[in-house]
Structure prediction request, 307 residues.
Amino acid sequence: MSAVVDHLRASIAPASAAMAAARAGDGAMAAWLAGARHTPTPRLLDRTALCVLHDHGVVAAGVDFGAAHPTAIAAGAIVDGTAALAKAARSAATAVVVIDAGVATAAPLPAAVVRVASGASGDLAAGAALTPVETLAALEAGVAIATALVEGGLDLLALGAIGAGSDLAAAAVIAALTGGDATLAPLDGRALVAAGLALVPPGATPLDVVAAVGGRDVAVLAGAILAAAAMYVPIVLDGAVTLAAALVAARLAPAVTGYLACAHAGGGAAGGAARAALGLVPILSAGLGHGDGTGAVMLVPVIAAAA
Prediction:
């Protein structure tokens, strides 16, 4: 652990029960917002969706597809405004920040993408996905990103993630932290996840788990969640990767859960296990499940109306 993380863990106060009670008559969402913002009249003018890009070595093809890499294509579509996330964000008056936490191509990504690391994670089925130093650096990068956004006036943070193998890594993290097994993963990746879980050391801390079977996407998002909660900013989750990150953050600082909302019921069995562990109920039921943040952004106008 680092001094930054230790400080955050100690500084996250529970959501305000008194403020939530003051808005209880306006419904559960209004009460949640008031508690998370620590005021009965929360402001939600500045909304940002944070989408983290990261490829995982567990499904690495060993070939650099260059600009044709699916994660790179997705990044380009978000930045040029043609992706579903970008379109939903425009409709919801929400800014989009795209983070490169390690895309498996040397081809340049759009200039608007903020790079915090390079290269895919290691193969979780064969060894540690990250080193402890890489894990901590990614988490602290997430802290720095969220802190900068909040200092710029952020009122609401929506999260998403895109990357090859991301759902497998998220399922492995969720299984390791909830006592689950490889059946939480998609069927075609269960053998890989089972191999990874067998390598998680006994008594592993949440960050040990991220290093063993997670990735920088989970670490960056966990850091962003910790920082946002410490500064009373509510967070909307979307998909298995963001749920895995929230579970890591909550294991580090349990009071984080008071600042979380879950957009939809996507994420498969791993998503369900994480929601149960976090005590979250999905707000939307619209067949969403990609996890890039589109579902979280679609919920933003509903949350703003509740405020």
Notes: The beta strands are 47-53, 95-100, 114-115, 156-162, 235-237, 260-262.
